[in-house]
Every structure is written in C-alpha cells, then in structure tokens.
Amino acid sequence: MTSQRLEEILDAAKSRRLLVIGDLMLDEFVWGKVGRISPEAPVPVVEVTGESFYPGGAANVARNLREFTESVAVMGAVGQDPSGQRLHGLLTEQKIELLNPVGSSDFRTIVKTRIIARHQQVVRVDREKVSALGSAEVKRAAEAVRKKLAEIDAVIFEDYGKGFLSGELVAEIARDAKAAGKIAAADPNPRNPIDWSGMTVIKPNRSEAFTAAGMSVTDWDDAPMTDANLRRAGESLIQKWKAKFVLVTLGEQGMMLFEAGEEPHHIPTKARQVFDVSGAGDTAIALFTLALSAGATALEAADIANHGSAVVVGKLGTATVSREELMTSFRNES
Asked: Could you confirm whether domain 3-25+56-111+128-333 is CATH 3.40.50.2000?
C-alpha cells in the first residue's frame, strides 16, 4: 500500500462513527523495581515506583479507535464503585461516549492489575465476577443501540467472556445493524459460544479459530500459507458464521485473511520488538473495522491492522497506536 493510499483511508476514517459493545474493564499497571527476594516466600519483592490506569477490555478497542476518529461510543457494564468512577472519568477525559451504562448498585467493575518490574510483567491480579444481563437489561441495551444506529457506521462486539454479551443481545443488535446496512465486527471468546452468524468480519486468534471450528490442533506449520489445518479452520468458520471475512491473528506470524470463495491471504508480522502483547487483538479489530468503514478493501484493512498491532506490542502496557506511528511503520517497510 502506498503512503498516499494510506493517507486517503486515514483521512476518510476521521469522519467515521463507531460503537463498541462488550466487557468494559479498568486496566491498572503497577510499575516498580525488584531488588530482593521475599524472606517469606521465594517470590520477588516489587518496590512500587508508580501506577497507571487505562480503559480496558472493550473500552481499549474504543481507545484505539479514538486515535483516528472523533466519534466513538462504548456500551458495557460499569459499577458505581471507585473503579467504575475512575473508568467513567477516563472515558470522559478521552471523549469516548458511554452509551446506556448497565450495572446494578452492587455490580463491581472488572479490574485487571498488572505488576511490571524491569520491563516484565511479574504477575496479573484480576478482580471480576462474571454476571450475565437479565432479559430486561438486554432489551434496554438493544433498544439503546437501535436508537443510535442511524448515527454510526460500524458496530464492534468485543467479547472477553465476562458476561455482558449474550446470544440474545448479539442477535438483536446484529439483525438491526444488517438491516441498516452497517458494518458489524466481532472479536469472539471461546468460553462464550455465541452464534456470530451474519457478521461482516470476525477476528479470532489461532487457538480461538481452531476451537470454534471444532478442531484440536496443538502444532502448526511455520509457513501459514501451507498450514492445512489453519486453512481448514478458516474456511470452516466462513461457512459456519456466514461471515464476509474471517481474520485470524497468528501472533509472531502475522494474520491470515479468509474470504468466501477466495484464496486466503497471509499478512506477515511487522513487529520488530515485542515487549507486551496486552491489547494487540483490540488494536487489530479496531483498525480493521475502522479501515473497512473508511472505504478500504479487506486486504488493505488487514495490512493496516497488522501494522498497528506491530506498533503496540513494542510498547509496555495496554497501548494504542497513533496516526504518525502507523504512517512511520508503513514508511519503514518500503
């Protein structure tokens, strides 16, 4: 892709309007240094030097979109606890609309705490309780999206398997989005067997793709284009989900794009250094969907998503990629 074509797509993306629906979280990073081993147990003692907080989960997808377009909204469950208030404040600060926030008075906001020392994650602590929406909450959420559809260009379902997304909610919103001619994208979770039929694009990682295709594969080919199991899984999912595209992320091997009736395309990774894979999948689904909504072909969108993911894995923490960083990544390739 030429720099001129990339700029055309990114310029068009500025006016796109997207809604992300899924499990909202607060990402906490505790930064420190390790100087000794605890006398109480054979574990490192981390001396804390700082803390950082970011919108996480589905909200991190919105953060990635917000780097390229002004109109981004999220829908998910947020508690009335201090963590929920902090998450709400961060979204407001970044000008991300929180659409119809759902959460009972006793709902506890999901928090993921990562302790980082010497540029390495020492441990992650999750504070969460998986809880599904009731039928009345599903109807309210679907109605809120229905009213919003005329104002948006694409919907992204981001499933972290924490309970917000259900088959009923996805089916209602997907049906309305399709009827309105909107792009619908999904980042699935194998622990939550939702029927993703009719989506424009679905983005599983390799293991998620094999699980969804009913395949038990523990080994894979070093060359994705000759990996018969990967090809079989991708083609199976195109048929199963009746999706226009299935984008399988392959970690250090990049991505594989499947399209009904077409040969798959392998997009090799652009990553030069990998410090932290936190949120790389969020970047991929965000940029692929945004680029599609801005008029990019699926292959162009996959290329953009691949470059964006390569940038964020070179950063510590739940990171995003800026327009300039994305442009630089493409320029460095040529």
From this structure: no
CA atoms within 13 A on the CB side of 128: 23
List beta partners, residue 126.
112
Is 221 designated active site? no
For range 119-128, the mean pLDDT: 91
- Domain segments of the chain: what residues? 3-25+56-111+128-333
SS3 annotation, 97-145: EECCCECCCCCCCEEEEEEEECCEEEEEEEECCCCCCCHHHHHHHHHHH
Q: Is 93 exposed, middle or buried (0-12, 13-18, 19+ CB in 10 A)?
A: exposed
**Are the C-beta atoms of 255 and 248 separated by less than 8 Å?**
yes
Q: Give yes or no for residue 266 having a pLDDT over 70.
A: yes
Structure confidence at residue 218 (pLDDT): 73
| Active-site hit among 159, 187, 276, 282 | 282
- As a whole number, mean pLDDT of residues 265-269 equals 91
Task: Reply yes or no on whether the pLDDT at 333 is more than 80.
Answer: no
CB 244 within 8 A of CB 283: no
Quote the radius of gyration of the chain (alpha carbons, Å): 20
| CB-CB contact of 6 with 306 (8 Å) | no
pTM above 0.90, yes or no: yes
What CA–CA distance (Å, rounded) separates 29 from 38? 21
Helices (H) and strands (E) in the chain, counts: 10, 13
Contacts of 194 (CB under 8 A, 6+ apart): 159, 165, 166, 167, 170, 188
- Euclidean distance between the first and final Cα of the chain, in Å? 10
